Amino acid sequence: MKSVLRSVKPYWFYLICEGKKKVEVCKTEPLSKEWDRIVYLYCSKDMHSFKRIPEQYREKYRKYLGTVGAYFYCYGIMDISSDYAPVGSCLTSEELMQYGKGKTLSGLCFRKINVFENPRELSDFKTPEKWSHMVVKHNNSLTFIDGFVGGEPLKRAPQSWQYVEEI
Questions:
Q1: In this predicted model, what pLDDT tens digit does every residue of 114-155 receive, in sequence order?
Q2: Residues 6 or more apart from 123 whose CB is under 8 A from it?
Q3: SS3 for 43?
Q4: Phi, psi dihedral angles at 149 (to 5 degrees)
Q5: Would you give the distance in Å from CA 34 to the centre of its chain?
Q6: Closest Cα partner for 64 from 18, 4, 1?
Q7: Taking Cα atoms as reference points, which of 161, 70, 68, 75 lies closest to residue 110?
């Protein structure tokens, strides 16, 4: 089964972990039938966002910068009009309009967040293996190969989200 790794800015990570944010808004949604509904959260290193966290919580959340710090089970996905901010998204209608540019967005809904006491590294996750048809060129001849590709440990966080598997 595949899970999802979602990149979030530190301020959103803080709101999610403190139970204030229960809907994670994204431009696209996971559609794979193999998705296990688990969403891991990678906390980016965005210091401008980090400074939005109330000062009394900053030390608690500093260790999560640049790591996978939590996960949740997505019990549902809602369509979100970019002119209406749903309760639990912690966004204003103006922020949704700016983010979605007038397009319908998706909201990953969850109830409980599971925060890692010890954050996990990106290399603890890999891209899912998939069956592929490959063409290899060697000495001006083409060879067709069927086989699995992927399965590489992550080196970079996704811009938005991607499917992953635990190593």
A1: 999 999 999 999 998 776 666 666 677 777 666 666 788 999
A2: 153, 154, 155, 167
A3: strand
A4: -130, 165
A5: 16
A6: 18
A7: 75
DSSP state of 122: G
Cα-based distances in Å from 45 to 18, 62, 67, 77, 152: 19, 9, 9, 27, 23
pLDDT score of 24 more than 70:
yes
* 2-166, CATH topology level: 2.30.130
Exposed/middle/buried for residue 59 (C-beta within 10 Å: 0-12, 13-18, 19+) = exposed
Q: What integer pLDDT is reported at residue 138 of this predicted model?
A: 66
Confidence of residue 108 (pLDDT cuts 50, 70, 90): very high
Write down the pLDDT at residue 73.
98
Separation of alpha carbons 19 and 35, rounded Å = 24
pTM listed for this prediction: 0.89
159 by Cβ neighbours in 10 Å (0-12 / 13-18 / 19+) ranks as exposed
pLDDT of residue 144: 67
Nearest alpha-carbon partner for 2 in 128, 96, 87, 105: 128
